[in-house]
Each structure stands twice: as structure tokens, then as C-alpha cells.
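Lab notes, practical 5.
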Amino acid sequence: MASIDDSATVIRVRGLSKRFGTTVAVDALDLDVRPREVYGFLGPNGSGKSTTLRMLCGLLHPSSGEIEVLGHHLPKDAEGLKRHLGYMTQSFSLYRDLSVNENLTFLAAVHGLPRKRAHQRIEELLNRYWLAELRHQLAGTLSGGQKQRLALAGAVLHEPDLLLLDEPTSAVDPQSRREFWESLFELADAGTTILVSTHYMDEAERCTRLAILDRGRLVADDSPQRLMEALPGRPLLVECDRPRQAQQVLEGQPGVIALAQIGAALRMLVEDVEYENPLSERLRTAGIEARLVSGTANLEDVFVAATRQPRQSAGEAS
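Output from the prediction step:
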């Protein structure tokens, strides 16, 4: 792994856009990712996360804009970037009819690792990612969590400076997700910069910095804590005996940004404190006795507030 100046910018993107016909998948995106960050992309399906990652690793040409990754200008210098970049896709992309060891040996040859170094590196990763006892097992017979660990081992085999991960935990259980994220922080501590897309709020909260994408646009970018502190709205808990009916009454009322039932309570995000009394009165008028209690902002509140703008046109990504 090459030494990276901590004051440098690993990824610099300006005005990045991608169109597929009349559909805008990525719309005038600006990004700066610093060394050793675990930088998260949060957004629903169709928000442009995967398209952006493919452009950042040179697999997809942008319609417009500038991309610089580890000093390489893309897509022109995509070939020179390969040896410094690791990329893990959503779906398992290794050879299912090869063993764990054979897959890693093949990838070592692809990356041009000398035979001795390849053997050392494979043994190191088999042990680090709990795959040593599975080295002779066919990759296609592994569990979801085991496939995930093998894919990560393959992505970091050549010790890349930057690791791009496209929703890597979408098909694994919670325990495997936690173990995977521990592995990511271990890589970051060792000097790898990580850009990871997700639609899980708990994963997004673990990132050192977070970008929220909506219909191809960057709608928020900061640390999770700062995003929650700057929430443009006020979370309230509606405590009542009939939360479902209360939700129906409050749906569409002025000042209400979002509603969600959480157990026996109703969580509500409102634009400002001035709406609290009118909403309480609206519930009483409907025959529902309720108590409105101030809540603590969470990342789901931030996400809802940032992505609640209406669609601009039918030609945007969905």
C-alpha cells in the first residue's frame, strides 16, 4: 500500500453527471473524500449510489463532470488506477466453481503479485477473515457471510489505497454485518480509505462522514452527528392508545414532515415547535387523547428531511 498524504484528497469530484437516455442517474455531484475516511453513501434504490461508484472506479464513463481518484483523472487514467483500487460489488462476483484458495490465487495472478508474496498475503487473509478452515471449499457452497468475507479478501488482496464497496452487506445476517464493519475499521486504521454505499441506517451511523443521495443529487454531506445536530425539523413522540388512528389523523397536516409507528408510539417529525399545539388539538378533535413528547433526532429523521422534496420531472432517476 502506497503512502498517502493525510492532507491530500483521495477522491475529488466536480459536476459529475450520468444520463441513460432521458433518465438522470447522477446529477451534478460534487464530492471530496479524505484519506482514511470511512465515507458512506446513504440512499434508497435508484438514488445513484451504484452508478457513482462505477464511475469512480472507471467502469462507467460520465456524461459530464470531472473525476480525480488518487491523483488519476478518470476515465482517461482508469488503467493506472486499478492497482491502487479495490472494488466489491453488491452480488458475489467470484468463481463459484473454484475453491476459496483457488479464487484468491487467481486474483493474485490478475494483480501480478509475485508468487511468494501472493502465498503470504493469501494465508494472512484466510486467517484474518476466518476462512482458513474453508480454503478447499467451493465458493458457491459458502454461506452468505462467508461469501462476503471471501469477496472482501479478494478486494483487498493487492493492498489497495482505496476500497469501494457497493451495498456489501445487503444479503447477510446482522452478526455478519457487525463483523464485516469491524473489518472495515481495521482496514481504515491501517491506512485504507473506504467509500461504502448502504441503505441501512445503523451502518450509516458508523461512517466517519456521510453523503445522502436522492434521485442522483447530493442532499447532505457531513458527519452523522453533525447531520443530526443540524436536523431541519423537530422529532416528537405521540403517546396514545390508538397510534394507527393518530397517524391517519395527522397524515398530511400542515408542518408534518414524516410519521412512523414505533411499537405502541407514533414518531413524528415536524417543521417547527409552532405546530405542536395545533396538532394536539387536531387529535383531540378526532377523539384521540395523546401526549406529545420531544424526541431525540436520529439519522432516519435526517434522511427523511433531506429526501422529502418532490420529484422535479419524470426524466430523473427513480
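Observations recorded by the TA: Residues 310-318 have pLDDT under 50 and may be disordered. Residues 116 and 122 are 10 Å apart (CA to CA).
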